[in-house]
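Sample pair:
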Amino acid sequence: MKILAFMGSPRLRGKCNRLTQKALDGAASAGAEIKNFELIKHKIKYCMGCGKCFLKEPDLTIGTCPLKDDVRAILEEYVQADGYIFSSPSYDMFCTALIKTFLERKISFTYKTPEEFGKIPAARPGIASNFMKKASFIVTANCEDYLEEVMGEPIYEAFEAHLLFEEVDTVEKLYCGGVENMTDEEFDVRLQKAFDLGKNLVETIRQYRAENS
């Protein structure tokens, strides 16, 4: 069992990354191998919208992108994983540009013929997981918890849109509001929730596979 996190905050010592790492600790406590992709550390170029990655070579699991950066290596690990944690602060009521840039580059998991251009793309071979893979989300924000619908939901929807065609279910969503004014005691409670989120992700994947294998 391997769980990968994709952390979209540029602040490596911030609360978003601390929650992400705690979630991975929870996954590790349930027996999973873990890895945190702190995206700010990686070279991720902007998608140019050229279409080459999804219009050519339909037999490939990952479409070939002409951009030379770290994304290909990241996606190769992505397809081998069993579950995912996506995390981002809420910037202007949406996910950060950092993680949005990464999400856009995942278009190389899709394929469609030139005749189907403009239609919803299909998953490339080996991408659709038949819901054997799962994901959970962490969102932090300065706005309080009661504003989760405004600050958190658009980010959840962005993550889920990219997972839908991969046939990856969402297990859990953790919104941590008011982070700048939160006491250490309050944040400790959220850290425990993050730990439980990671542990529950692994246990849910394991249970689903046992029931559906």
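The first strand starts at residue 2 and ends at 7.
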